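BUG-300 | component: ligand-complex export | severity: low

The export step for adenosine-5'-diphosphate jobs runs without errors, but we want the raw record kept on the ticket for reference. Input record follows.
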Amino acid sequence: MNNSHRPESDQAKTLRNLNNSHQPTTIPDYQDRITCVYSVTSGKGGVGKTAVTANLAYSLANLGKRVLILDADLGLANIDVVFGLTPNYNLNHFFSGEQQLDDILVEGPLGIKILPAGSGVQNFIRLDGHQKMRLLDALGAMHDTFDYVLIDTEAGISENVTYFNTAAQEILVVTTPEPTAITDAYALMKLLSTTYHEKHFNLVVNQIETEDDALDVYKKLTMVANRYLDISIDFFGSIPRDRQMIDAIRKQRVITEFLPNSKISSSFGRLANRICLEPVHSPPKGNLQFFWNRLLNLGG
Ligand SMILES: Nc1ncnc2c1ncn2[C@@H]1O[C@H](COP(=O)(O)OP(=O)(O)O)[C@@H](O)[C@H]1O
Ligand SMILES: [Mg+2]
């Protein structure tokens, strides 16, 4: 695996300094560390959630950020496949007591950590009190702490998806310019806002041909949202359709690592920069333990 870093750009340095200024100078313990949790979600499947999660993780890691991916997507092209990894275990092995949490974590390029939920994702939200305590203890004791946690969710409006989206601090909605993808993205935001009181969404338009495609999608969504829903949508960026994605997958590498100087990799870099510029929540909301607690409590 090629873990070589590109030379850090001035912009990356500025971003790093900016973000560092949010960090407390002394970090007493895990409880006070700031972690931003983003769910990467969509109404329709196949729009590129997994691709966005993996490449965004790589681009954030390239800016020096420590990233954990929670792979909560049961679809075929999972995060491990995209990174060319073969995890031996998933959360079910932890729930059954066969493995410790540390043994389930897999390491990708640039130190990215991946927590494969596997089919354990269905159990995640239905744990009994004892299992929840055990999981929270293990998560709290995880040696590494992270600047960003990205959750690759399933598509649609199943219970799983809504729990992860509600527990995350920020929701990144991925769509393509395809009409059904836009309609399904709207349906997801509608459900999350009316039933779960989520009022803010961030939008990424994937697989665009021209920049106008992305603006068109954003305009359509904000127009109906302003009319029928009480929500705000931030445009976070667009990613071009790139046939070389297929080559990258064949090589079992993410495209941002495989072709760092391509147009698509620059788009992912801009998306990572955009995210780094977002105001950071202070604890407890910007605290990883807070997120795990919320997730497990939402599960009843
Ligand atoms: N920007 C893109 N350009 C070309 N192909 C893409 C792009 N984004 C995703 N794909 C391809 O589309 C397919 C679906 O993407 P995936 O990330 O698995 O979607 P999801 O996780 O939303 O189901 C995959 O084969 C992926 O390689
Ligand atoms: Mg996927």
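Assignee comment: Attached the raw record above. Residues 42, 45-51, 73, 75, 77, 155, 206-207, 239, 241-242, 245, 249 surround adenosine-5'-diphosphate (ligand 1) (CB under 6 Å).
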